[in-house]
Write a structure and sequence with these properties.
Length: 86
């Protein structure tokens, strides 16, 4: 069974935000393997959030500030826009 992961890195993207490594863990012939999908993402957009139950969000965006803070925010119509950096 594939198990997705998101790993913060120390690399800085042109946008000024740090980058994530994204991928999944799987098994091959009974041995765990790590499959990296990308390592240069400065923003992750999760759509189809039905698994959140009663939370009124359709999508969540994630980014990583230079000081290592992971921010969660949404661009869903009529919802909170998240935090603006000072």
């Amino acid at each position: 069974m594939r198990c997705p992961y998101i790993k913060p890195t120390r690399k800085i993207q042109d946008s000024g935000y740090r980058m994530f490594e994204v991928g999944y863990y799987d098994e091959k012939e009974g041995k765990p393997i790590k499959q990296i999908i990308g390592s240069r993402s400065d923003h992750i957009w999760l759509r189809g959030m039905e698994f959140l139950g009663d939370l009124p969000l359709e999508s969540i965006n994630i980014d990583l500030t230079r000081d290592g803070c992971i921010r969660f925010f949404t661009h869903d119509e009529g919802k909170s826009k998240g935090c603006e950096l000072q």
